[in-house]
Amino acid sequence: MSASPGLTLVAAVARNGVMGRDGTLPWHLPGDLRHFRQTTWGHPMLMGRRTFQSIGRALPGRESVVLTHEKDFAVEGVHVAHDLDEGLARAATLAAAMGVSEIMVVGGGVLYGALIDRATRLIITEVDADVSGDVMFPPIIAAQWHLLERSEMTRAKGDDFGWRHASYARIAAPATLAYKASL
Description:
Layout: E1 6-14, E2 18-20, H1 30-40, E3 44-48, H2 49-55, E4 63-67, E5 78-81, H3 84-98, E6 102-105, H4 109-115, E7 121-127, E8 135-136, E9 145-150, E10 163-170
Parallel strand pairs: 1-6, 1-7, 3-4, 3-6, 4-5
Antiparallel strand pairs: 2-8, 7-10, 9-10
């Protein structure tokens, strides 16, 4: 059996930890959206139903696995799972089929909170703002994460705020990933 794929949490987070408000992003950052596309391209993306609904469609070049408790939730081109273990297993199977070694976890807050202790990498867009919101990213505990790199502040045309990218690797081995490599 091959090794389980790594879990990479991909998020945009304000200085005060906010990443969402009323089911949307509390900013408009076209430059970061391009980075999100490049980062997640060719990978399975694991997300909650509300995150999927905020995106509004399956994104091209990636496979979407949506976690939901709604038994009748179905969207063409989207893989649906009804619990975390099923979602991780489905995403692992897709990663193997796609020939990649990572599952990209793209939100929301509940999913990030459930998986941060099992993640192997974090790719964080640090938004240069303090904004109000109702969805927070879990704290990044310095003793558990090594900052690999941080870009210079960026602000593309149309961006509401400046931002930078930070990439982290887990210092210690993550908690055991409790899922099978295939369904």
